[in-house]
Amino acid sequence: MQKLHEIAQNQLFELRAQSDEERAAKQSEVNLLMDEVERAQAMLHGLEREKVQSTKVYLILNSGLVIKYHVHSTSFTA
Q1: pTM of the model
Q2: Which keywords fit this entry according to its UniProt record (predicted)?
């Protein structure tokens, strides 16, 4: 009976160790995925800032062209 108890305890210990290893591996994978998500979010924010800046430049340049067009189209002739 003692021997069966020892075998059962050893199996339980092995199962717990295996479970801990699997849990650690999954946690490591989750950490890697979270790092990847954070990098993707940082890239997205950078692209959004770049888009805003490009839009501002476009609007500034475009407004200059519109003003220039209006000035040339409203010239007076005597």
Answers
A1: 0.60
A2: Coiled coil
